[in-house]
Amino acid sequence: MEVMTNHGFRKTIKYLRAFIIISLIGFGCMLVVFLGILGYAKILGAPPLAVPQSTLFFANDGTLIGESNSGQKRYWVPLEEISPDLINATISIEDKNFYEHNGFDYKRIAGAILADIKAGAKVQGASTITQQYARNLFLEHDKTWSRKLHEAFYAIRIEMNYSKEEILEGYLNTIYYGNGAYGVQAASQFYYGKNASELSLAESSMLAGVPKGPSYYSPLESLENATKRQGIILNAMAENGYIKKETAQKAKETPLTFVGEHPHKRVEAAPYFQDAVKNALKNQLKLDDRTIALGGLKVYTTLDLKQQEEAEKQIQDTIASESEIQVGLIAMDPKNGYVKAMVGGRNYEQSPFNRAVQAVRQPGSTIKPILYYGAISQGFTPSSTMRSELTTFKLDDGQTEYSPHNFNNKYANGEITLAQALAVSDNIYAVKTHLFMGAETLINNVKKFGISTKMDKVPSLALGTSGVRVIDMANAYSLFANGGKKVTPTLITRVEDYNGDVIFESNQEAERILDPAKAFVMTHMMTGMFDKKLNGYAKVTGNSLIDEITRTYAGKSGSTETDSWMIGFTPQLVTAVWAGHDVGKPITLTAEKSYAKKIWVNFMEESLKGKPVKAFTPPKEGVIGVYVNPENGKLASKDCPVRRFTYFVAGTEPTEYCTDHLDHKEGKPKEEKQETKDPWYKRIFNWGN
User: Which of 176, 236, 477, 641 has the greatest number of CB atoms lying within 10 Å of its CB?
Assistant: First the structure.
């Protein structure tokens, strides 16, 4: 019996020793695995904490005009801009030992495991804030052991590389509160219509209970369930020493008001402009689509909300509701190219195609100021005269004929000046000038003015038969308005990333590309479209607008069979308006032909109302102003019945005085003029009939 007992004891010792050895081996293996996990986590380093966030777009006064979010509202705010009550409420209900553990609450884990074993399924969670943050960043929300293991590994990496404050800030900015609101800022705005920093204790404790089940604990879904959970959270805050029991009770009794609406449910301000901004972010700043949509960018734009609203109003008020006419409008600051207003069509929801920046349309006579800038550069002056009459030009050694026509087939059938030709938009004068200089002159000048579309090398190019974009024409006229300095249409002034770091800032350097004297002479000539003194065989093209304007404008209208344009400016603002049919159908109704002019004049007047009336200031040198007879361009004395103050490039001003009024006054027939040799710029046209 004793032998058997000793034998049994030795056997027991043997098994115990084997168990200990196996346990030590198992523990050693586990230790190796654990250390291996830690080492691997250390090697991988800090996991990126960039999360999807709404990109916000701001007007030039800082007003939020829109956001890009794919249906999710995500705004990142620093921890110091979150109500302390909301922080404490969240910690109390989600992870009261947050500041003590290293990512895992082992007591809660053990309790959850026992509960799961008893239930035979995954029924209870023990995730810490760190683990939940890891899940929000990298994982799905399925309740599987595989997901939990991945979650634990990410939690280790997060705890190893980030502070508790960084983890808490990230968690509060990524947790889902229902109704498309991710993070405390979006949730605060949705539920209470205020920022996360402004939440009271009562509001914070109610909001902290929502993430457990937004469809169950949202006060908008069930105020009863939400109130019960609020009470649990307030009690937990009192137990954890964040508030007193009396304070908790008072918060429970505080009535709350809920908004239940995101402050920016849909894009309302300048949708065409916002599309153009996103396109600029992609093509100019080379940002990818995901970064633009969910990169948490803050994009500060050039948009002037007052001018944008005025542009949309004038288009709506001017164009008849039943009309099929479409419209494109660009308003720019000529000093820096900042786009102040943009309309790409009459209804964005029906047609997001942006006619202000995408459509290529014939500019008609609005190309003439660029043509005549070239002429001024080659010796023409506002007083240069040529005959306006029905003319057939024989080209290609007489093999081809070209017969342009004036509007309504009206011709002076005599000499007119360049200033008058521009004011009444004489096509014969334009084609003669174009042919004399050669097509390359206009083509090269068009490029100089920033227009990149293809120009056809044909006589009709002088009449605007090659397509352009509205935004490019507004930019081209900006060079006249600012005295010849190059500008580029600019939509964005600054872009910040989700951390607030500036990744782009507009900084255009002024580069003079036009001669300031010649640019000013052209600008002053362009005021002629509003000057009745330049009426001759035809009225000036701005005659219908003269009674509507309250300040000096320079500009040019243009029309083709299918396109109607008006582009004009002051020193502060350039606006280009196009109207026409998308399909290139002829504009036949008289009212529709005037839409562009009416929209332009009303927009300019309203946009500039209350702002200083600024005159076009001549450069300090290079120009000279004299009075001339607008009919013949000769110097006009104070006794001339009609005279117009006109600027010339210094040295090109006329020297001969007009005597027509003297002849008429004395009742004598005009003396027969001596035969003179035609000026150099006329002799080229001996092929015309």
Answer: 477
- Measured distance CA(583)–CA(562) in Å, rounded: 9
| Residue 235, pLDDT score | 94
CA distance 412 to 421: 10
Interhelix angle 201-208/245-252, rounded to 10 degrees, is 80
In this predicted structure, what is the pLDDT of residue 641? 86
Max CA pair span of the chain: 164
Our separate counts of H helices and E strands in the chain read: 23, 20
Instruction: State the number of CA atoms in the 13 A half-sphere of 247 facing the CB.
Output: 15
Taking alpha carbons only, the member of 287, 264, 234, 244 closest to residue 93 is 234
> Closest Cα to residue 436, out of 652, 686, 685?
685
Extract the tokens encoding 59: 């007007």
CA dihedral 532, 538, 540, 542 (to 10 degrees): 120
Q: Where does residue 408 fall: left (phi above 0), alpha (psi -120 to 50 degrees), or beta otherwise?
A: left
The runs of H, that is alpha helices, within 449-585 are 470-481, 516-526
Supply the pLDDT for residue 6. 63
Q: Which of 365, 425, 478, 564 is catalytic?
A: 365
Strand 181-182 relative to strand 73-74, pairing? parallel
Is 94 one of the catalytic residues? Answer: yes
Tell me how far apart the alpha carbons of residues 337 and 157 are, in angstroms, rounded to a whole number.
48
The segments of the chain whose pLDDT lies below 70 read 1-52, 69-72, 102-126, 137-155, 264-268, 398, 661-689
541 with 555: CB under 8 angstroms? no
- List the Cα angle 282/285/288 in 5-degree steps: 40
Residue 176 DSSP symbol: B
CB atoms within 10 A of CB 380: 21
Alpha helix (H) ranges present in 259-367? 271-283, 289-294, 305-318
Point out the catalytic residue in the list 54, 83, 94, 151.
94
Encoded tokens for 678: 């035609």
Instruction: Give the integer Cα–Cα distance in Å for 257 and 223.
Output: 11
Q: Which of 601, 549, 603 is nearest to 310 (CA)?
A: 603
pLDDT in the model for residue 378: 95
Q: Hey, which residues does 568 pair with through a beta bridge?
A: 555, 575
Would you give the DSSP letter of residue 212? G
Question: Which of the 8 DSSP states describes residue 185?
Answer: H
- Per-residue tokens: 371: 């043509």
Q: What is the DSSP string of 347-406?
A: -TTT----TTTT--B--GGGGHHHHHHHHHHTT--TT-EEEES---EEETTTTEEE----
For tokens 């705005």, name the residue: 189
Rg, the chain, Cα only: 38
In this prediction, residue 166 carries a pLDDT of 86
pLDDT at 689: 38
Question: Using CA atoms, how far apart are residues 116 and 332, in angstroms rounded to an integer?
Answer: 66
Closest CA to 387 of 363, 400, 406, 371: 406
Long-range contacts (CB closer than 8 Å, 24 or more residues apart) made by 438-443: 441/374, 441/378, 442/367, 442/370, 442/371, 442/374
pTM, to two decimals: 0.75
Residues of 255-267 as b/e, b for ≥16 C-beta within 10 angstroms?
ebebeeebebeee
* pLDDT value of residue 14: 64
Structure tokens at 85: 């009550």
How far out from the chain centre does Cα 684 lie? 48
